[in-house]
């Protein structure tokens, strides 16, 4: 059931979205989608940790829904958070909670792009088993400061009945020139591990998040395409559709540990809840082909 929005049902009045993360990958993409769909939206100018700046944004824009695609993910990667713990807490913990609290005060649904990198394969959810973590499972990956604090925030946000927590994982988009894109990342690494994971195809799932806002859906959602795909399977598709001469080298998790600071999460999330709400949702491999590789196809073969 959706969150009861102040006054009229949100369906009776035109949508107005307030989006945080204007300069970011997900926030930028979301704005383009709203523009394409003719949805009235504005980007927030406040900083998440500054409550009065968020209240001023809401007072000035009177949104029907707020989207949070702001956060620190670290540059060039989450290892940054290990050496910038206070900055990470300021935005991802204090900031996210402040935004949720302000939205609750105003009776507004907050669609929060969170992370699914708070789980790792274990004996009850072994790699290759097809048994994924469900929405109600307790996070078990605290290997990185980034993930540890994201798991804490997810737990606290369960108390906010106005928040829709979307567990995004290893986001992929059709823009293969974007260095943040998981495909672009792994094609540029010198060596890659080869582990099946749940992933999020943004071209398919960001429009779904807009629809989730329209339906006032709240609570926790595994926000990944059903199933898993491994690094090598993606690189094989890349070779088939994009560059027939592409080659890569694998290395083990132990070897990878030597070139990164904090361990990374590998897991399968169970996407049954999202699939039940959106039966048209494609499996990860179908979505990769339809939304990423077919539109970018450069070879004759595939
Ligand atoms: N990319 C991934 O691999 C991934 C995976 C799973 C989940 N997510 C989550 O999805 C969200 C968006 O990710 P993304 O990849 O789009 O991130 P991104 O490209 O790094 O963009 C982050 C955005 O957050 C804004 N921001 C940072 N600190 C802020 C603050 N204190 N107040 C207001 N805005 C602030 C940045 O604006 P300024 O430039 O003005 O600081 C920027 O627009 C994050 O919460 C991230 O944890 C990402």
UniProtKB/TrEMBL annotation:
Pathway: Carbohydrate biosynthesis. Residues 16-188 form the RmlD-like substrate binding domain. InterPro entries: dTDP_dehydrorham_reduct, NAD(P)-bd_dom_sf, RmlD-like-bd. Keywords: Isomerase, Oxidoreductase. SUPFAM superfamilies: NAD(P)-binding Rossmann-fold domains (SSF51735). Pfam families: RmlD_sub_bind. The keyword Oxidoreductase applies. The keyword Oxidoreductase applies. One of its GO terms (molecular function) is methionine adenosyltransferase regulator activity. GO terms for cellular component: methionine adenosyltransferase complex. One of its GO terms (biological process) is UDP-rhamnose biosynthetic process. It comes from the Eukaryota. PANTHER family: DTDP-4-DEHYDRORHAMNOSE REDUCTASE, METHIONINE ADENOSYLTRANSFERASE 2 SUBUNIT BETA. This is RmlD-like substrate binding domain-containing protein. It comes from Quercus lobata (Valley oak). The gene is LOC115972044.
């Amino acid at each position: 059931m959706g969150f009861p929005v102040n006054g009229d049902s949100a369906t009776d009045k035109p949508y107005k979205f307030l989006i945080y993360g204007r300069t970011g990958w997900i926030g930028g993409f979301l704005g383009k989608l709203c523009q394409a769909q003719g949805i009235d939206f504005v980007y927030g100018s406040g900083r998440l940790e500054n409550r009065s700046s968020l209240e001023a944004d809401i007072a000035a824009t009177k949104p029907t829904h707020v989207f949070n695609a702001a956060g620190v993910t670290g540059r060039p990667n989450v290892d940054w958070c290990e050496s910038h713990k206070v900055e990470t807490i300021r935005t991802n913990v204090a900031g996210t909670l402040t935004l949720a609290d302000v939205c609750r005060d105003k009776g507004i649904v907050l669609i929060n792009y969170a992370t699914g990198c708070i789980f790792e394969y274990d004996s009850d959810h072994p790699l290759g088993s097809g048994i994924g973590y469900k929405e109600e499972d307790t996070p078990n990956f605290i290997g990185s400061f980034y993930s540890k604090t994201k798991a804490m925030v997810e737990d606290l946000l369960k108390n906010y009945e106005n928040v829709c927590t979307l567990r995004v994982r290893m986001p992929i988009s059709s823009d293969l020139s974007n260095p943040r894109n998981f495909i672009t990342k792994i094609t540029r690494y010198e060596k890659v591990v080869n582990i099946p994971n749940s992933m999020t195809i943004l071209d398919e799932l960001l429009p779904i998040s807009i629809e989730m806002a329209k339906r006032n859906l709240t609570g926790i959602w595994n926000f990944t395409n059903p199933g898993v795909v491994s690094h090598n399977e993606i690189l094989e598709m890349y070779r088939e559709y994009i560059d027939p001469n592409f080659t890569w080298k694998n290395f083990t998790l132990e070897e990878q540990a030597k070139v990164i600071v904090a361990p990374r999460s590998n897991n399968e999330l169970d996407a049954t809840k999202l699939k039940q709400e959106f039966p048209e949702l494609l499996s990860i491999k179908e979505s990769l082909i339809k939304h990423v590789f077919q539109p970018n196809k450069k070879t004759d073969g595939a």
